[in-house]
Amino acid sequence: MHLVAMAAGFALILLGLYGALTHRNILRMIVGFTLANTGVHVVLVSVGYMPGRAAPILDGAVPVGEAAARIIDPVPQALVLTAIVIGLGITALMLAYAYRLFRARGSLDIADYTELKW
Amino acid sequence: MSFEWIQLAYAALTVFIVINYGLIMTAVVQKIGARVGGRYGIPVWQNYIDLVKNIALRSKISHGVMFYLGPVFRLTGGIGLLLFVPTIYGSVMHQNFAFAGDLILALYFVFFGTLGMALGAGESGHPHAAIGVSRGLAQVTAAELPLALAVFAISLQYQTLSITEIVAAQQGGIFNWTLFTNPIATLAAMFALVGTMMRAPFDVVVAPQEIPIGPPTEYHSAYLALMQTNRVLFPVAKTVIYMNLFFGGASNWAEFAVKVFAIYMVSVLVGVVHPRFRVEQSIRFFLKWGLPVGILAILVV
Amino acid sequence: MSNRFSIRHAAVLGLLALLGLAFWTLLAGYVPDTELNRTAAYYAENTARETGAQNIVTAIIVTYRGLDTLGEVTVLFLTAAIVALVLGQSKAPRGGTGSGFLPSGELLATGTRMLLPIILLFGAYVAVNGHLTPGGGFQGGAILASGMLLLLLADPARRFSHRIIARVESVSGLAYVAIGVLGVALAGGFLDNRILPLGQFGALLSAGAIPLIYALVGLKVGAEFSSMLESLEETEDS
Amino acid sequence: MVSAIFIIAAGLGAGFLIGLLREEQKGAAFAVALAALGFMAWVSVSWFIALASGTAQAHDIITAGTQPPFAINLRMGLAEAGLLSVITLTGLASLIYMAPALHALGRRAFAVLVILVMALSGLVLTRDIFNLFVFFELIVIATGGLVLLSDDKRAVAAGFKYLVVSQIVGILLLIGIIFTYHAGGSLNIDDIAAQPMAFTGAGLALFLLLIALIVELKPFPANGWALDIYESAHPGFSALFSAASATAALYAADKLFAAAGPDWLPLATVLGLVSFLGANLLGLAQRNDRRLLGYSSIGQIGLVLVVVGQRDILGDAYLYVAGGILFTHAVAKAGLYWISGLVPGRDLADWAVLRANPVLLFAFAAFIAMLLGLPPFAGFYAKWDLAHALTGADRLPVLGLVLLGALIEAGYLFRWFGFALKRPNPVAFPGFSTTGFAVVLVALAGGWGLGFAWGAGSVHGNLLLAAPLIFALAFLLLEPLPAWAKNILAIAGLLGWVALRAPEYDPLHLVFALVMLAGGAVILLASFTAKGERLGFYPSAMVMYAGLALLIDAQTSFQFFAAWELLTIGSYFLILRGRESEPHALSYILFSLGGAFAILAGFALASGGLQPFALENLAAIAEAGLPVAPWVFVLLALGFLTKTASVGFHIWLPGAHAEAETDVSPMVSGILLKAGLFGLWILLMHMGAQRLWGVDLTYLLVWIGALSAFLGAVLAIFQEDAKRLLAYSSISQMGYALFGLALMNHLGWLLALMFVINHYVYKSMLFLAVGGVYHRTGTKLMYKMGGLITLMPFTFVSVLVGIIAMSGVPPLSGFGGRWVFYNAIMSSEMRLPVVLIFMSGPIAFLYLFRLIHTIFLGQPKDEHRKLREAPFWLLVPQMIFVAFLIGFAVLPGMVLRKVDAYIGGHFGDEALAWSGRTITSQFGYWNPVAIMLVIGAIFVIVLALLLMMNRNAQKVKQFNIVFSAERPFKPQTTHFAWNFFAPYRKALGFLEAPHVTRFWGGITDSLHATADFTRRIYTGNGQTYAAQVLVFVVAVYLVVLGGVS
Amino acid sequence: MKDIDKSFRKDTETEFPLREELRPRSVTAPDGQVIEIDPLQDYFCQEPPKVHKQSYFKIVEDFYNWARAHSLWILGFGTGCGAIEMRPLMTPRFDAYRYGIQWRPTPRQANLLVISGYLSVKTLKRAIRAYEQMPSPKYVVGLGSCTINGGMYWDSYNTIKRLDDYLPVDLYIAGCMPRPEALLAGFMDLKKLIRKGKAEGANKYAENFDWYKANQKSVIKDWDMPDYNW
């Protein structure tokens, strides 16, 4: 089960990257990266997953004393939250840039922005 | 060897003898050449007359200080060369000022006169003089090379740079001469002799009609007289070096006269049977023929 | 932008295949832990005692890895600021945009009026209960911002005061940093939540400064998202 | 001591606080940012000082009251404090520098900048990999914001490309982090177990982490995005991006490499090398200043990555070396970017506007020197230690490649400096902003400060405390004084130093000291000719002299090398002053640096990495017969041969010497060339003859010397330019000296020494004389002159004496050299190379005659009719030289006798006997006094005769010549001067074919072509860049995988 | 038959234009000052020739004259067809060398100028220059009828008819043209003159310098050289 999730995550990454690297439209590239980011997040959480254990919340279901034996690894879950937020930030920024680029030239083709080279 | 005042008188005597010898010898050589050509030739004292005539000329011009000094350099070079080399082996009188330096001094002092002359000719402002100098210098670089190598070879052979010692080593029979003990070096040196005597085929430097006799174009009167003096003195002085280095030296004036004459005749003989080389041709000649012999000379020693 | 399968696509495919090889190696070599590793185990055993939070993830986020979270909040702050910078340069004159939109209709307007208080309440709840239940400041903030989005959708021409949003954003950020610094002064280190009493395990007002921090984060995130939405809204093309 | 956590707290607090301000309160925003950054900088610097001075200890800062690895911790150590200082100070300076641009963008921009600096600090401080990621993403976002500061419209696209690549890096980083966590159960860097290079599980995770961080370092060739940022961003931001961001990112990588264990270091080494070489190579083809700086940044970071790869062998010196390079780079690069902001044009040649402000020009030069690791800057010490560590660990290929890359970098940087100094100023001087200028000055001060600090920390002593260098640098402050005042000081300084040091020198060193320093003072007399302030001359000249002074004083290899580099730099700036000297100065510095690198490698090899290495120890190596000995010999000899411009390395010399200023030519020719001989001397004295593959290396040197002597002379005779002629003649003369040295016998060395003295005297004299002529006629082409003898008689005399001395004609001093030469070759076994020397002797006569003839004799030109004699102060040293030459000709024993005894001590023989005035060798004898007297007497007698006979000679004018009964019309057509030795050219012109020039030209051309071709991989397409990053990652992965399995 | 008659002197009033390169010009010196150049003035020594006294002691002068007589150096300068008769002098058949006669290529070193046949006005100019550049004492020998009275070119518009109007001739050798034997005989006679101290042409030239110049200038219309060529 965990392997499926992880494999799906990796697949999402590759898929996202494929999209980002083959589509010349900037918005589609952004979408590709978002997809890849999602894949990363899936991989992240799947690493912390342990079959048959509960969420790391010490309520009635998991008493404090048994926590170590009953909960899954909480760290990846904490990390993924941060990763998501950061991914969101970057995506927002890219979108803003895309807008700015579009305003400047009326094009969203990445190949149109190659004045800087060599 | 140290200096004594009497040596000044001895040296003056040497110079006097050699100048006279040179004046007559060059005339004789010319006469021989004339006889070969079926002519009677100049009188043997013609050189003296020309000398006096030139000194007796009344009007002179000067192009400037270096022009004036050129012949002085030239003759100083000739006399100095003569006096830095012992003329007669074993003679106290004619050791001259050999104590001042050895073979190397003589070799390099050769250029003293050349340089002065070139400078004087240069200041005359005549383009032909400059062309002549250009040719002469260009040619001499190649022509002197075999001599330099030959000298190196025989200094290695005798393990000394002192001319006196080299002559001493050749005493005791004709087969002790370098000519026989080291024929290759001698041959190399002969290339240089022929090349630097300003005779055909290496006399394009003074090509009389093309660049009216080259460097001395503007020289006349007493300037010319000094140069004429040098013209008879210098080849003898140079030949003396060859004689000392390769032909056993001379132990008296008679031997001196004969040997110098004979060596001098080598270049004359070559000259009368060859047409003139252009400068680049003579450079190539010396590099192609003289240089290998010279290299061989230093390699086989 | 042709959809033709070109050499470029093939090259990218090949490239990704090779990258996939690396991923595959990772995947194939992955063996899930059967026991918590030492970090996780430490958290499982000590969270309750040290932070008083029920939700271990929250404890990690807010306390143990508080610096990350502060950074995270800063990321949002930065993003909001930069989006404003990026878009600010192509900002439409005041009142000049949004007017082209048709009014969004009665249904949406009314629905918004009804839903907004609930959304805000829910957001606040999620934010302050982060140490007890799944959720927290980020989630709460996002919910708050969604309320804002709803408002914008209902009335595209509507403008909020940037100053208020910015004040909320900055004040909560400053307060967050101040709490962190207080941790150095009063407790074990930067962002130590024990500057406040840990309280009753499982109670709302427990786990030291965690609820406070999460409330601030909620406010801040809500404000930042709102700010971004607004910046996007105010461009000429919207 | 304020905890480092407050750096982060202050950064964040200030950021949020600025958010609280109103949009109009930009002044307040600036104030807050300034206060925050100032506070951060103060904390960092105070920590750095405390840690460096040992009053504080490195410690961990824990957060959340929990011990790591369970909570994030920060670490404050010496390295961190240093890096933080650099980052925060750069941030502070950039804030001030960019203030107007930030104002224009709004108050938020201030917040972004402060947070960027905070994030960079966090990146340095944190010990948690995920926290690292967070800070990294903060940096990405802040960068994305600050790119917008630029006026350049293209910056937006650049920012987007940057974000695209950052996405990929982020993905790799996260995957690496999570699997690393999975493997080790901890996110703390200190918990990452050292991993062997394996490609499963933890190893692969580590690989992903490392490669992501490396990609963040913009490694060649996956770095097009970074270049675009460098090119288009605001220069103030580029400064930050290069100096602070790259520095922080590098430290992040370093932390992980430290954790990953020694197995991974080769990865850093190789990728660093590729980056260093590749970026520098491509830099060659750049014309845009900021992009060029970008290439250079990438290269430099690559270099530091190489150093990271050597941490296993550097041991305690690691921080010293890495820090030296990294900090110097940061300061220099920031400084250069800040300067670029003051320059209106973007082409390299547009930097010519800097000429309006000498201070900026000086800053430019200093920054370049810093980047290249030249003394006395910190990078120099680091470079030295790095080289020694590399050779100590037998990593010679790494050293070789590093030096090669540095040489290429030197190529484009110095070319650029040449542009700035020499190219026409394309735009009107815009006026520099005061704050920008001040910020550059701060960077400049920082660079010097670093140099001082690193010097203080060096085991070899601080170069900046060496008296000669202080004296030289003092001239920077004295620049406003008039030239004559500075000249008096300079002369006094040189003579004073010689007087001070002379008692301690052995005769050999004394001769070199006299020639180089006292001789330099004599040449400086000629500098009284100059009017005005003569900006830049004295610092350059005195740095050169300082280098020479230190060179003679040098006891250890380090001192020697430092002095060597100093004199190289000084002389480069000196040469560059000449009117047309730009390309020649460049080739000079490149050959010199190439040579210097060979010397560096040689010394490093000799020492085996152990320092300090006394020069005497070279002897021990030679005696021990270590297999490394011949290689040491080869490398050192190569270095010295470039300085003596031996054939093959000679092409820099003619231009450099010919185009230099009048009083500089004799310095670089008469004096500087002797430095190479001095080096060779030291080398041969200590190491003696070495054999490599059965070949006696001194025999090779003999051949090189002979060839140089020959070809230098041949080339000289075909020159039309008088100074070039003299320059080629220097090649020839140095060939003689080299020949003598390499003969490895007593007389050979004496010969070389005579050449040292004589060549100094007559070449200085001739250069001054020709310089005087140039001063008056405005041309160096000899055929345009003629007949100057009456107009410039003193100059003529000095040339006359000079050429007589030089051609070796008795009675002047050159003959002594020839005499010793013959005696030397007779006591040697070498035969064949002698032939070449024999040939070059008469050939020298040719070019010398041409020199004097075409300038002073023949027909004066109309326009030169009213020429005056050369300026008085040019004549003074010439007349001193004339007097010396005659004196030295008569009494050579005064100088030579002691040296002869000294050399005899070395060889254990007594080759010359000095009795009375006669000098006797095993083979011959030589009495200079007698020669002089005899020649003088004959000359006087003959002259008297002639005067008597020709006393009434009529003085005539220039056209009173026989001209085949015609008469000339114009001097131009009557002066035989152009192509003077035409017959020679016909016969031996093939020797003139510029094979060597073509060879080196071919190398540089192919480098340029490669650079120009390769840089086309940077298509400008963000998607391509992203793909390139992935290709890079995958390629490295596959290569490493192949290497492991 | 004098050259200087109306029919010969055509058009003497018109100023003959100077050749381009002989006109005054100005050049700019490297330091910027402008220098006026007058080629005819600046490049040449303007000093007139001097009359040289004989030696104070007659015996010395006799000795010198003997030497001069036996060392006749002829300037290699063939002006007309007579030059063809000069060459055989040096061949084995006549061998003039035995009398101390030889050719010199430069006037500086020659003291005998042989005007070998007709002398066109154009060549006269060169002959004058060559003569003036020779050091004194110097001798002029007119060879053939043309130098005496114009010979077969007596009415030519372009040759001079009487050499001693222009140069101080020491000796004429008549004939059209004289054989080498005649030349040798002439040289022998010249020697005698020299021995007697009567060959003082150079001094004569200096003494009557103005007269010679006037004659020379009257036929050479483009006189574009200094009065005396040193």
Automatic annotation (TrEMBL), chain A:
Membrane disposition: Multi-pass membrane protein
Regions that span the bilayer: 29-49, 78-99
Keywords of this entry: Cell membrane, Membrane, Transmembrane, Transmembrane helix
InterPro entries in UniProt: CPA3_antiporter_subunitC (IPR050601), NUOK/Mnh_C1-like (IPR039428)
Keyword Transmembrane: yes
The keyword Membrane appears for this protein: yes
Main localization (coarse): membrane
Cellular location(s): Cell membrane
Highest taxon of the lineage: Bacteria
Pfam families: Oxidored_q2
Protein family according to the UniProt entry: Belongs to the CPA3 antiporters (TC 2.A.63) subunit C family.
Name the UniProt record assigns to this protein: Cation:proton antiporter
Organism classification: Bacteria, Pseudomonadati, Pseudomonadota, Alphaproteobacteria, Rhodobacterales
UniProtKB/TrEMBL annotation, chain B:
Pfam family name, one: NADHdh
Keywords: Membrane, Transmembrane, Transmembrane helix
Locations listed in the record: Membrane
InterPro entries: ComplexI_Subunit1 (IPR052561), NADH_UbQ_OxRdtase_su1/FPO (IPR001694)
Bilayer topology annotation: Multi-pass membrane protein
Superkingdom as given in the UniProt entry: Bacteria
Keyword Metal-binding: no
Name used for this protein in its record: NADH dehydrogenase
Provenance organism: Sinisalibacter lacisalsi
Automatic annotation (TrEMBL), chain C:
Keywords, alphabetical: Cell membrane, Membrane, Transmembrane, Transmembrane helix
Pfam families, A to Z: MbhE, MnhB
Subcellular location: Cell membrane
Main location: membrane
Regions that span the bilayer: 69-87, 107-128, 134-153, 173-191, 197-219
Stored InterPro entries: CPA3_antiporter_subunitB, MnhB, MrpA_C/MbhE
Residue ranges of every copy of the Na+/H+ antiporter MnhB subunit-related protein domain listed in the record: 108-225
Membrane topology field: Multi-pass membrane protein
Domain MrpA C-terminal/MbhE: from-to ranges: 35-85
Similarity annotation: Belongs to the CPA3 antiporters (TC 2.A.63) subunit B family.
Name this protein carries in UniProt: Cation:proton antiporter
Organism listed in the record: Sinisalibacter lacisalsi
UniProtKB/TrEMBL annotation, chain E:
Keywords of this entry: 4Fe-4S, Cell membrane, Iron, Iron-sulfur, Membrane, Metal-binding, NAD, Quinone, Ubiquinone
Residues covered by the NADH:ubiquinone oxidoreductase-like 20kDa subunit domain: 80-189
InterPro entries linked: NADH_UbQ_OxRdtase-like_20kDa (IPR006137), NADH_UQ_OxRdtase_20Kd_su (IPR006138)
Source organism superkingdom: Bacteria
Family to which the UniProt record says this protein belongs: Belongs to the complex I 20 kDa subunit family.
Protein's recorded name: NADH:ubiquinone oxidoreductase-like 20kDa subunit domain-containing protein
Organism field: Sinisalibacter lacisalsi
